[in-house]
Amino acid sequence: MDNKMLAHAVRILSMDGVQKAKSGHPGAPMGMADIAEVVWRRNMKHNPSNPGWFDRDRFVLSNGHASMLIYSLLHLTGYDLPLEELKQFRQLHSKTPGHPEYGLTPGVETTTGPLGQGLSNAVGMALAEKTLGEHFNETGFPIVDHYTYVFAGDGCLMEGVSHEVCSLAGTLGLGKLIVMYDDNGISIDGKVDTWFTDDTAKRFAAYNWQVIQDVDGHNDEEVQKAIDEAKKDLQRPTIICCRTHIGYGSPNKQDSESAHGAPLGEDEVALTRKELGWEHEEPFYVPDEIYEAWDMRKQGAAAEEEWNSLFNAYKKSFPEKAAEFERRMAGDLPEGAAAALDRYAAELQKEGKSNATRKSSQAVLQVIGSKIPELIGGSADLAPSNLTKWDGSKVITSQDPKGNYIHFGVREFGMTAIMNGVRLHGGFIPYSGTFLIFMDYAKNAVRLSSLMGLQHILIYTHDSIGLGEDGPTHQPVEQAASLRTIPGMTTWRPADPVETAVSWKEALIRKDGPTGMMLSRQGLSVLPRTDKQLSLISRGGYVIWESGKEPELIFIASGSEVELSIEAAKRIAEEGTSVRVVSMPSPDTFKKQDGAYRESVLPSSCTKRIAVEAGQGDYWYQFAGIHGTVVSLDTFGESAPAGELFKYFGFTPENLVTRAKQLL
Ligand SMILES: Cc1ncc(C[n+]2csc(CCOP(=O)(O)OP(=O)(O)O)c2C)c(N)n1
Ligand SMILES: [Mg+2]
After folding, report:
1. Which among 18, 62, 65, 180 is the best mutation to test ligand 1's pocket, defined by most ligand atoms within 8 Å of the CB?
2. Each residue of 304-354: pLDDT tens digit?
3. What's the DSSP call for residue 24?
4. How far is residue 35's CA from residue 38's CA, in Å, rounded to a whole number?
5. Contacts for 658 with CB less than 8 Å, ≥ 6 apart
6. What CA–CA distance (Å, rounded) separates 626 from 562?
């Protein structure tokens, strides 16, 4: 079978899919089809019948707009993606959404579309492969041993995050990462030669990558030769710069931005069939012999079978390690780890020692780090501030990848997207740290973490004006609210060391999504609690103090403002008002509780409610209600010592008393 015809099948399916949907991007799939044929048929180790087979090569379509390319490939190689699905491209509830979505389509390893992030996820996957291999491989038993392939276009390489992650990938020597660069000279606005003129080869060479240049992306032999070269160098990641023609085969749209993001049109589709020498006029029709040549199910099953016997032998020789490997791949926490945190929270309660919650977070790591070897952490050059390192942290370097900690350097976005990739790979629970204010730098990766439902513990310290002197550029105002508006995101803003321990526990047991932890720079006292109250922290909101069972006034607060609220409540109660204080470290968790519980904490009979948080306040009206009020910070902060700032912005018991009394 002529390999060119195999690639043409991808072109045909891709342009037909886009044409039928009247929407989508035919250009890149048609331009990368030859490269895809070489990668997917001749190089990739994958089993279409078991997309989750652990030691498969990972494939990331970073130029996610080329989604019809991966759908065509999945279909042709034998994944459970029937032709009917390709005909439903971009339609509601199909398995072929506009951009590839993780969890929806078998064989899609990550959600892509936001340019640059697929590449970043892939760096995380390659990093995870390398480090996990160090944790588990034994001589003669390379149970973790696969490549990570990426397709990326001009857009991915223009995005700033590509610099962050490719720079780090070079430094870490991620030798099994192979990027196929679709150098077609076109992006949406046209020929890129007036906005993207970097010398990409020199750029990547400077990052310590192996660069293979001037590959004709339509010459399968050249592409194969380049991949062979890539695989020879396991010390450096490889970028293969492939010159391609966007919309290859389309007589009137090839090499033009008009092929990028719109159907070719019925007439042009017909002309393209002729140009490619494709004899079948019926849309989506692929002859049997082409299907046969593409079908990877047999090879895939054999490859997996081979790995299974390797793993069985490993199991016999290293039964404990094998069991541990299986546990980690399944994503189960070690037995007793969660219970250890419950005990620790109770101890902290008893001890009553005040601490900044960022320090309490580090103390938690100290307690559970050695029990949960799959924890892999890092910070964007703020380790001493975020306190993401603990005694057992071992830094991963290119020479010594057998660690559990990454110095990400000043690369918040890259860090977050890389850690998403680490999680997608499997075998690790990632946590990553920066100042809450710089969450914004990483925001879209945070969003994708939630969109994909990835466990990822986001440590955000310096959570308010409480950070003090660094001033308004560093003081988060709208960041907490912004995090909370991401669908599926869980946030915790603990009021003291005890709530911090509980937040960590909840983040560790939450397998299906990210958790944002907002932690204080300043010290916070341990709040008095009964055992019952201690057990209610995990519900996200609970009564922390009250002067009577039937409140006339309720304070609702999070983090450092809980203690202030209790102080204010006590003063008001002294005058005979029945007052309650609700600590609400995790409003989204509280909202998931049953109605009876929520009513018991915030009885609807009490409409005099005052929510307190040193941040943008709109989010809190849902709890304060229209008859309530919110004491918040809705302007930028100021540079001054923290204590003064709290006073200046009205976060004092006195002001809270005044504001509360206005309700009574
Ligand atoms: C972060 C981000 N910004 C903007 C877009 C919108 N967008 C989609 S494709 C594209 C151009 C990409 O150019 P290139 O990677 O060269 O793709 P090609 O036209 O070659 O297929 C843009 C701007 C996006 N998907 N992600
Ligand atoms: Mg391009």
Report:
1. 65
2. 999 999 999 999 999 999 999 999 999 999 999 999 999 999 999 999 999
3. S
4. 5
5. none
6. 22
